[in-house]
Amino acid sequence: MCSDRVAIVSASVGAGHDGAAAELERRLTADGLVVDRHDLLDLLPAGLGRAVRDGYHRMLVRAPWAYQRLYTGTERAGGSGPAARALLRAAEDRVLRALHPGTGTVVSTYPGASRVLGNLRLAGRLTAPVVTYLTDFSVHPLWVADGVDVHLAAHAVPAAQARAAGARDVRVCGPVADPRFRPCGTPERDRARAGFGLPYDAPLALLVAGSWGVGPVRQVARELRDCGAAVPVVVCGRNEALARQLAADGIEHAYGWVDDMPGLMHAADVLVQNAGGLTSLEAFAAGLPVASYRCIPGHGLTNAAALDEAGVAAWIRDPADLKSVLCDLVDGSLGRQQRAAGLDLFARSAHDGPAAEIARVHRSGPPPLPAQPGARRRGRRRRLAVTGTVACAVWACAVGTGVATTYDPPALLHALGHSLDPDRLATGHGHAPEGRHS
């Protein structure tokens, strides 16, 4: 008889992976299952999890151009390099020990976790099925790990990308979001605006930049204000310094971490985002049209392209189009189309979405162990000789999801050193744009 216990392995890199894990946990628990949550960063050897998180954050803020180079390089290579694989293998025993003996299914919401769990399945050390829930609309090859039994996608676009990267069993089952993110009427909208001290009679553009507040947020906030299409309302996440800078710039409505994001979305008329993560899905659930603009490198750009291809978010590539697109999203046919498309994503998800699919996999019992994969087509890779610390830093920096990967660490370290040189920063070359919720 199948155990009633499910494990979810996520990672505290930003807030999107953990946010998806939390909602899956809520739904699976409501379905009568016992859920254990684990953070892969806590299970890395030698306490390297914090270095992974901090290294990834540092690269996004200080050297986004180098991050783009790494993301593109590993995308071409089709996955991680030998140093990163060694680091992930070092976490396998810790992950296996963390899993309760009665665990019937393991779910990953983080690519690095999928790699570790897939390896354990291939080696026969983990008999429970492994399910990867793809939290992004674009699928970097690192998301697709040999040994994972099922990949769950929010839409046909990421599903097709996962299959192209080699995933076998891919199922489209919609996204997940906290049920507080839902459409609202005028009275609730007015109460939300009053609660946040926002104007009643002006269109509001909610500008988000992830839990870390990264990207050219100050520039975008000023552009929103100056174009006149909507009043900017900016959420800076844990970047309190950014909130102070925006206040000094004359941006009247700038917040740090916001606990009531559903209320803030109810108050807004359009969401402007730069990463395409969980916040975009929450906006779709709330019936809020979404625009991708001045996206961060790597996953920010690929998510913008995938959301645009799926027809659920407009990708504004030219600043000259900012005002016209926002006006159309706030009060035009484009906004009506996107509200309908976004809500349609969740039409199935509420009752027959990822959690229901996980429960079906779980109750079907242990599947046969996956066959050892054949040789995959890979891009040319350089042989790497690096210390564990360098591997960890590269892992943190190489992909938007913070997944383990490597791509020419000596060149990377040279690039990072160059980008942080005081003289170079003073001239503005190699300096990241200024940089809640996922």
TrEMBL record:
Going by the UniProt record, its keywords in alphabetical order are:
Glycosyltransferase, Membrane, Transferase, Transmembrane, Transmembrane helix
Family that this chain belongs to:
Belongs to the glycosyltransferase 28 family.
Please report the organism this UniProt entry assigns to the protein: Streptomyces roseochromogenus subsp. oscitans DS 12.976
| Annotated protein name in UniProt | Diacylglycerol glucosyltransferase N-terminal domain-containing protein
Membrane-spanning segments: 384-407
Q: Name one GO molecular function term.
A: hexosyltransferase activity
Does Iron show up as a keyword for this record? no
- One matching Pfam family is MGDG_synth
The ranges of region (Disordered) come to 360-380
Its GO biological process terms?
Answer: glycolipid biosynthetic process
The Diacylglycerol glucosyltransferase N-terminal domain, residue ranges: 17-172
- Gene Ontology cellular component terms for the protein in this record: membrane
Keyword Transmembrane: yes or no?
yes
